[in-house]
Amino acid sequence: MPGNPLHQDGLKLVVLDQPRFTDHGYAFVTGQAYNAASDLPGQPEEFPVAGPADDRRTEPPVPVKNGFSGPAKFVFVTEDGCINAWSSHTAVAMRTAPIIIDYSKTAHFPNAANCVFTGVALTNNAFNTDAYAKAGGNHLFAADSLGDANALYFTAGPIGEEGGLFGRLNVNGSPMARP
Q1: Can you list the alpha helix ranges (DSSP code H) found in the chain?
Q2: Is position 179 within any domain?
């Protein structure tokens, strides 16, 4: 097919960190979203992620001292109840997508909710818009097809082990409604 190849920088795979136990033996991704707001000039850092990274301009890639820290470019949800985030620039790419939220059945209390995430969405409003101001920033929405809420939503700021859960949404007012 004519045109530019999809993976221009040589990156072909993003490995997701996984909880202590998974039903499939690997992180089973059921949704991903791109954080387009992170590309806007002047946008505050939202959905931060940090971890080991490599400079991919060389072969083999060279580890970057102090790793990477910045806004997530991609957010993934898994059937195991985890939310992972990953980021990359032209030269630097994180080695893996670390778990940002762990609501798996093996998570530490009080987060062991045994969620089954089946989809994800991000709001991508520019910081200088009315929509951004009214919402109090951008949010991440994760559909949970098993838990007592059909969707969980998180703030755009740091969301570490303690959660960052901003609220729960129920469909049709029923706490056990299924999508």
Answers
A1: 130-135
A2: no
